[in-house]
Design goal:
Elements lengths: L23 H11 L3 E4 L2 H11 L8 E2 L2 H10 L19 H8 L6 E5 L5 E12 L2 H9 L7 H9 L3 E9 L15 H11 L5 E6 L6 H11 L4 E8 L6 H18 L5 E3 L2 E2 L7 H13 L4 E4 L14 H4 L6 H4 L2 E4 L2
Parallel strand pairs: 1-3, 6-7, 6-10, 7-8, 7-9, 10-11
Antiparallel strand pairs: 2-5, 3-4, 4-5
Helix pairs in contact: 5-6
């Protein structure tokens, strides 16, 4: 069921699909109100995360984590209430200007998060303000403190000293450039899968920078022998310098799907995410993302979300042994 509306074969993670998107006349009012709030500039990676949270991709999270959830996730791979969640959703703005703004904030305040043109993207209602240990974050999340690991390097390069936790409300989406016409949000796919197409099962497949290859095709065709539909989500970068490379990847998917996959059973939707580089933990995250899009099955290949030699090639398989299928809420299919 999605937000108590209709009965579906799947349920969003945590039971309810998060929707923190402000719409209608209220949106214009809130945009104007946001302009009068203390403002923190956010980069494209932060905006991507904000969109994912507020559109339900990262349900049950409604905003950036407070300290209790942040530490529980790092130490146990779960939210403070015990719900499975593998990676922290943190907001620790960097820079002297942002640091000065943070010093003047307190719990209960609201802050406008704005893009590089100073246009409001979202409003953050502050529920927690805390400092964190970078080394603890790196070791717990990535299993290393080596700055050669891109995720570890990002902690020191992109994160400030103080984290802000609280609920987000999205005011403005960012255009996806050449991928805008292919954009699908969870509210779209639940209806597409279970109402428009009448599926009873859907297998999700998320893939990184690699182009579609025969190994992927094997996984897809294997799944189609069992489930009603497959939902393919190639990750795409949103920096304009990356558009062309990712456009070719998407065109490759489109060509193969048009020529070789059953049109009524295969759906393509690029996934715009912030690369976390968390290896096996990221495999769990991707499974939960597929679940929040409505998928009943998650297809996980060898070395899923692997980073160089930092993780064993089957680490992304072995981590699923730490959780039961009941608490994950999605059927995990591991391919060697």
């Amino acid at each position: 069921m999605v937000n108590g509306a209709k009965q579906y074969p799947q349920t969003p993670h945590g039971g309810v699909l998060v929707d923190q998107v402000v719409t209608g006349p209220e949106r214009e009012t809130e945009i104007e109100r946001a302009r009068g709030l203390a403002t923190i500039r956010v980069d494209l990676e932060a905006i991507i995360t904000i969109e994912m949270i507020t559109t339900g991709v990262l349900s049950p999270n409604k905003g950036f984590m407070g300290e209790a959830d942040y530490l529980a996730v790092l130490d146990n791979g779960r939210l403070a209430d015990g719900t499975v969640w593998p990676v922290p959703l943190s907001f620790a703005p960097i820079g002297k200007v942002n640091s000065g703004i943070i010093e003047g904030l307190k719990v209960g305040d609201e802050v406008c998060l704005a893009d590089d043109q100073n246009e409001p993207v979202a409003i953050l209602e502050i529920e927690d303000i805390f400092e964190y240990d970078r080394e603890h974050r790196a070791q717990s999340l990535f299993g290393t403190t080596d700055r050669e690991h891109p995720g570890v390097d990002s902690i020191y390069r992109r994160m400030g000293e103080t984290a802000l936790g609280g609920t987000l409300r999205l005011l403005n989406r960012v255009d996806w450039g050449p991928f805008e016409r292919l954009r699908k949000e969870p509210k779209d796919t639940w209806k597409m899968f279970y109402e428009d197409r009448g599926f009873q099962s859907v297998a999700g497949f998320i893939t990184g920078a690699n182009p579609l290859h025969r190994g992927h095709e094997y996984i897809h065709r294997n799944a189609l022998e069992e489930v009603d539909g497959i939902f393919l989500q190639p990750l795409v970068e949103m920096a304009k310098r990356e558009y062309v490379r990712h456009e070719y990847r998407i065109r490759g998917y489109q060509n193969v799907m048009e020529e070789y996959y059953p049109e009524d059973r295969s759906i393509l939707s690029p996934l715009r995410v912030t690369y976390i580089f968390a290896g096996p933990r990221e495999a769990i995250l991707h499974a939960l993302i597929m679940k929040n899009y409505g998928c009943t099955h998650a297809l996980i290949g060898r070395d899923h979300a692997g980073i160089g030699d930092f993780y064993d090639k089957y680490a992304a398989h072995n981590i699923f042994d730490e959780y039961t299928q009941e608490e994950l809420g999605i059927d995990i299919r591991l391919f060697h």
